[in-house]
Amino acid sequence: xxxxxxxxxxxxxxxxxxxxxxxxxxxxxxxxxxxxxxxxxxxxxxxxxxxxxxxxxxxxxxxxxxxxxxxxxxxxxxxxxxxxxxxxxxxxxxxxxxxxxxxxxxxxxxxxxxxxxxxxxxxxxxxxxxxxxxxxxxxxxxxxxxxxxxxxxxxxxxxxxxxxxxxxxxxxxxxxxxxxxxxxxxxxxxxxxxxxxxxxxxxxxxxxxxxxxxxxxxxxxxxxxxxxxxxxxxxxxxxxxxxxxxxxxxxxxxxxxxxxxxxxxxxxxxxxxxxxxxxxxxxxxxxxxxxxxxxxxxx
Length: 299
Description:
The chain is of the alpha+beta class.
């Protein structure tokens, strides 16, 4: 952030290495640096020549529990313009700023942990359920399509048993990256549990969802995940189950259930394939509806 500079917004993008100039020195030592006269101090770089500053300059590190989070700089256009009392006051201000920054970082971390999977950094199952409810209500209200992909890494237990869980974790992390990179920003990718992933596709009908599933399947099939020395390259594949509203889903709970059923059909059919839940065959008359609801009794 900048204040008091005229036509110097480009300074916002300026960075200093640790130890570079007065700002870098404040970071390196973790102590305030006070320059009484910038014209007589070689350490002062005048923002790398971008802004010639004459007068006095005070650089205070933002320190929290011995960790330097940043630096705040003060300048006045007069020599020796900061009194000892002002330096102490501004140092207290810097301490409060450091505390606020650290609290904000902790809040962000806690928030991310509540909605993200620790291993893959994708959304977790709980947060996905929340997003699903929101998108379901939107689809119902505006009569829009909504599709879901349930994805399972094929033979992942065998891979874990062969190469170990550390290598397995690397595959899952990379799988999350591959999936997230190859869907739209409006789509939601989450780790559903174990080696299962789930993708929510707003405004996507069954045909479009199948196309997305096939695209992801082909990308995963040809992607080089982990090269293990002295071992042949292992091919990773996925099986994908697809469900869609309104094609085969009438209730929110069916979105995941139908995709899960289709996923198991894909696995039973040999894996490394995309299978969708059968399209609903809707009754064409009121009598047909009544006959569907009337149980057959056998005496």
